[in-house]
From TrEMBL, chain A:
It holds the Pfam family SBP_bac_1. SUPFAM superfamilies: Periplasmic binding protein-like II (SSF53850). The lineage of its organism: Bacteria, Bacillati, Actinomycetota, Actinomycetes, Streptosporangiales. Belongs to the bacterial solute-binding protein 1 family. Residues 1-21 form the signal peptide. It comes from Streptosporangium brasiliense. This is Multiple sugar transport system substrate-binding protein.
Automatic annotation (TrEMBL), chain B:
This is Multiple sugar transport system permease protein. It comes from Streptosporangium brasiliense. It is a multi-pass membrane protein. PROSITE patterns: ABC_TM1. It is found in: Cell membrane.
Amino acid sequence: MRLRMALVAALAVTLAGCGSGTDTTTKSGKITISYAIWEKNDQVSTQKIIDAFQKQHPDVTVKLEITPWDQYWTKLQTAAAGGAAPDVFWMNSLNVRLYAKGGVLAPIQNADVSAFPQAIVDGYRYDGKLYGMPRDVGLPVLWYDKELFDKAGVKYPTADWTWDDLRAAAKKLTDPAKKQYGLLAPMWDQGGFYPTMIQAGGHVISADGKKSGFDEPGSIQGLEFWTDMINKDKVAPPAQATTDTDPVQLFMTGKYAMYYGGSWLATAFKANTERGDKVDVAPLPKGPTQEAVILLGLANAVSAKSEHPVESAQFATFLSSEEAEKILSDTGGASVSSRAGTQDSWFNAFPNYHLKEAFDASIPHGVPYPVSLNTAKWQDVQNKLLAEAWAGRRPTADAAREIAAQMNEILAKE
Amino acid sequence: MLLTEERAAAKAAAQPGRRPRCDWLWGYGLIAPMALGLAVFYLWPIVQTLYLSFTESGVFGGQTWVGVDNFAALFGDEEMLGALRNTLLYSLLVLIGVPLAIVIAALLNVPGLRGLGFYRTLYFLPVVTMPAAVGLTWRYLYNGDFGLINYLLGEIGIDGPYWVSDPEFAIYAIAVVGIWSSLGYNAVLFLAGLQGIPKHYYEAAAIDGAGRMRQFFRITLPLLTPTTFFVMVITLINALQVFDLVYLMIDTKSPALAGSRTIVYLFYEQGFVQNSRGYAAAIAVVLLALILALTALQFRLQRRWVHYE
């Protein structure tokens, strides 16, 4: 007990020291903080949010830096290694633990995140501390082509659909003569095989992040859901087709009836004047064991080495505030706010799509995206081996067990 | 004017030994920018990479010395063996482009050819085009469902494969692009070589009754061997380092990746995707050794087939 008291006291002293140290440096004149993001399509909304923040904090200037996704992580990592990370930057749950453990991120104190989905917030906790303020939510949904359903006389997908309903519909919607398929089955983790693995009672990684779940019977069943559609039932095009052409583009050709895709595709689909109004969304079908959908949303993190920690934290918190999140949703870009009560204007921007219904039905079944410390390392193994299964060159169960073995080895070293 | 020149000359005469040293300094001064660049951007990174290859590095810096562990792991790594095989296969395929470049250069060298500048520009265009643009354009051409190549094949009743997504075809498809994009550069080098061959050899051969074909094989080819040697060394070094085409044309989730992953691609995967910096450095060191060995071998073999006039 006494030890704990002493620790708390020590912590209080260090924190107080931090606070007073920064206060003196920031009170002197105008300061600039840098903000790094990767999505160019969010530039407009982000700039509007920055303007709103600067109005409240006239002595702070926020400099926006946009780096495309392909270079974003390489650049951030190099900068962080040199102690020169941007003051505030986009973070995803895949990388957050690595950066938190590496001492790059400053924990966010006293933040109220009760308005955000639990599954997303939990993705940014590490060692009991929060390392990012949640921003948006990406929900995997089932997109379908109404025209193909009408032609084949098949009823549209509903929120009650199960795997069997999906498979039955896919069979009816497949027509080899016309090169028309019932389903697109690209190798996609968040909205594709991770949910089906969990829906069948398996899991990707144990809760403590120490053991792979790929060799669980449920996980294998969830993976076979996809590989069987391609290689056995042949209601989905071969894996070569979906790696050759972006599945989003394939879906817009009107030859594929259903596609597990992100809610964020609404912007791209709406902009497609030819086929945009012929598609719609439904929640993901239920699995044999349970309903599950992986919610992924990015967060704004603060650099631990920031020269202006107070203002940076203020800005990161502001980005998640009701005001900022409303601006994000109102702009109708790719991202929808993950803050409860600020999303309606985004849904209304897409009157043709039943996005609100899909969100309302899915959010309660949200599951955090599976991560460990160095997620990218085992995901690389996972992608390489699953590519063989997807192409029908290796039995799925065999590939899954091999992933589990290699993944456990990687996890043991973390 | 005259006065200063005289004075300078007098000064130089008065101080013997000063002039050469001054020349040395001038020499070093002039190559300094280049030497500095080489040292900072080439030599120092080589030393660093060598050091890193014996360490295991943290994601955000900080290295621990692990001795030869990385190299030991490398030689038992199936992916490394696969990458080595893919890289060598690709390099051999790209070398096929060398004779092709000779033929093109010979055709471009025909005296009195109309639109010569146009053809030369045409063949050189891929060289000045960004690899990213080249890779993406070819990816579209190769597309299994909507690509131009399969469309044309379909017109004559052939159902073309998914060229870059099918493990059977991917590396060959990439090699075709590799040949295509290096053709112009090599052809220009050969063209220079061809124009360096004195005309009187051909005149003499013609008087002796040698036909054009005979002239080509007996005069042109042997006298072109120094250029051929140079082109082969450069092409091989470039081919061994291929990365951009694979990165741009093969999707990370493609079933064809295992069959087309090159050494530099593996380096990228290990260093920047999996964050194993030390291991990636070891891969780079192995590649450096491989390039040195193959280049040394070529220099050795050149005595047997390269004729200098």
